[in-house]
Design a protein that fits this description.
two-stranded antiparallel ribbon, globular, alpha/beta
């Protein structure tokens, strides 16, 4: 049976169908879960996609973290289930306390929409497991509040624990330490600003996102088997 991926939809989410299509392309079954639901259904992994949850009022993710579905996401993560937040989903995960740090407005207060080159700097996460360290990927970014920040002590813990999973080769937004993606200490919750679901076909510029999503599917299948 294919791994089952729950794709959470908030009011203002706009990348959910891209994620469903991308997950199906790498062999998973994907279904949409509304933010007002309190149950994820038969999920082996969860993805919080990009967009503008609740219009990004107050700040991105600040309202979405109170949605009923986030209680289910938190329980799923606490039980070791793979959870990935992409762009706005990353913002929601930090606001919900499932990942450390925060995402703030880009350097220069400019919206960034462009291909980005990132490097795999840790394989200790459900999104990068099995990928050789130093692997370079081309994955697009599309955000205004994508600059990752944290205090020095948190940054030291992230570095020491192998929780910085992706770094920009050319920093597009001013993120501290060129961080493009981080994981929790257990490695089962990951947030990243680049959009792997938009890099699954070479005809669209890159298929490198498949490497990340396939790793997620394999990890989800392994968790279910265990």
């Amino acid at each position: 049976m294919a791994a089952r991926v729950a794709v959470v939809v908030f009011p203002g989410t706009n990348c959910e169908h891209d994620v469903v299509t991308a997950m199906e392309r790498v062999g998973a079954e994907a279904s949409l879960v509304w933010h007002g639901d309190r149950d994820l259904g038969p999920a082996d992994a969860v993805v919080l996609p990009g967009g503008f949850a609740h219009g990004d009022y107050l700040r991105p993710g600040a309202l979405a973290r109170f949605s009923p579905v986030m209680e289910a996401v938190a329980r799923f993560a606490a039980e070791g289930g793979p959870v990935v937040g992409i762009c706005n989903g990353f913002q929601v995960l930090t606001e919900a306390g499932l990942l450390p740090g925060a995402l703030v407005k880009n350097r220069g207060l400019r919206f960034v929409c462009a291909p980005a080159r990132v490097r795999v700097d840790s394989d200790r996460s459900v999104l990068t497991a099995g990928l050789p360290l130093g692997t370079t990927l081309s994955v697009p970014v599309n955000h205004f509040s994508g600059s990752y920040v944290c205090d020095p002590a948190t940054l030291a813990r992230l570095r020491d624990g192998g929780q910085v999973v992706l770094r920009y080769l050319e920093n597009p937004n001013g993120s501290v330490d060129d961080i493009a993606g981080v994981a929790n200490a257990a490695g089962n919750v990951v947030g990243l600003m680049p959009h792997p679901e938009r890099a699954v076909d070479a005809l669209l510029g890159s298929a490198d996102g498949q490497l990340l999503l396939r790793a997620l599917v394999q990890q989800a299948a392994g968790v279910r088997a265990a």
